[in-house]
Amino acid sequence: MVKDIFKSKTRVSVLISKCNLMNKLSVYIVNYFNRPSSMKTIGIALTLLFLQQLTSAQIEMPEMIDTQDVKVVDTTYTYEWSEEVANWEIYSRSLHFIDHSELVTSVLTQRWYSEDNRWENFEQNLKNHDEKGNVVQSILQQWNRDAQDWLNVQMKTTTYDPRGNEAEILYQEWHRPTAEWFNTVVYLISYNHDFEKSEVIVRTYAGMENTWDNYMRFSFSYRDGYGPPYEVNVETWRKPDNRWQTFGRYNLSYNHRGKVTQETRATWSESQRDWVPGVRYLMSYQRNDKTENIEQRWDYTTRRWINALRKTFTYDEETGELSEETVYGWNRDDSEWSIRNRFLYTDIKPEGIET
């Protein structure tokens, strides 16, 4: 499996405010194309940015996932660099519960509270698999400190076609007042004759009408029908005249290993009848490992790209796992990068802290 910053074990994701779905997905989008099957999640990532606009409808509660049949618990620790003490300080840990089939059944994230000298639950993701090992259901829960109990947040249900490709992905959110799951968004995925993803249609649920409405469509273009997509066109659904309207575009460049080296996003302007640049990402690699990710924003005044955010990644020489991440912000006054934060990822238990 190709190692990238999401290979894993949610080490990076614990650094994001997971209560804020927007922040989590913005990071997810930036790195998504670096997977071997890069077409897998474009529609999901982009569309969930608009979840605040979605409506809901009640459906039945599925069976809860059994997490008791655990064979191994794999723990990873995240440290944050403290400028004040000039040293690494423990930040969080992720516990991966693995069953006898070597499948991860749940991932528990806990935060360290030094003032109380204790771990406290933060978030957990419960997973169910089919007979082929595919994840068919995952439930995201967050810890309620007041109630000292887990609260459901989101459920993702995935349906696969006979070839094992994702055919439908349904997202639902937990409605606390009625203690039931409500529909939010569904992704319908199509493939071409080369079994590459060709189209993803996103539909949102209209609770009052009890119907699914078209929302966005992602169309993937390939050179000679093979390899990763070099362009993704995004359309939104116009209700008044029931048709798709051009909305955005992704342009992608790759290295000889099939890893994305540049991703440029643009939005279609009806008034200008032209594409308007918005953001682009420049990625560097050492073999299959991403070592740098630079985010740039288009400056409409100077008509050029301006640096915004930079991340660098270091990997363990023995395991190949991500071991350190540094986040930089662009200082326009000094025209240079300045460190915002640093994180260390390891399976080494911190000294002086009890389990």
Structural account:
With 355 residues, the protein is mainly beta. Helix content is 5%, strand content 58%. The protein contains 2 helices and 19 strands. It has an 18-stranded antiparallel beta barrel. Strand 12 and strand 13 form a beta hairpin. The protein is globular and about 65 Å long. The N terminus is likely disordered.
Averaging pLDDT over every residue, what do you get? 83
Quaternary class? single chain
What is the 3D shape?
A: globular
What is the CA–CA distance across the termini? 31 Å
Which class of secondary structure composition applies to the elements?
A: mainly beta
Strand content: over 45%
Q: What's the helix-strand series?
A: HHEEEEEEEEEEEEEEEEEEE
The strand count comes to 19
Helix content: under 10%
* Unreliable residue runs: 1-68
Element layout with pairings:
Blueprint: H1 21-32, H2 42-47, E1 58-59, E2 72-82, E3 87-98, E4 104-113, E5 118-129, E6 135-144, E7 149-160, E8 166-175, E9 180-191, E10 197-206, E11 211-223, E12 226-238, E13 243-254, E14 260-269, E15 274-286, E16 289-299, E17 304-315, E18 322-331, E19 336-346
Antiparallel strand pairs: 1-9, 2-3, 2-19, 3-4, 4-5, 5-6, 6-7, 7-8, 8-9, 9-10, 10-11, 11-12, 12-13, 13-14, 14-15, 15-16, 16-17, 17-18, 18-19
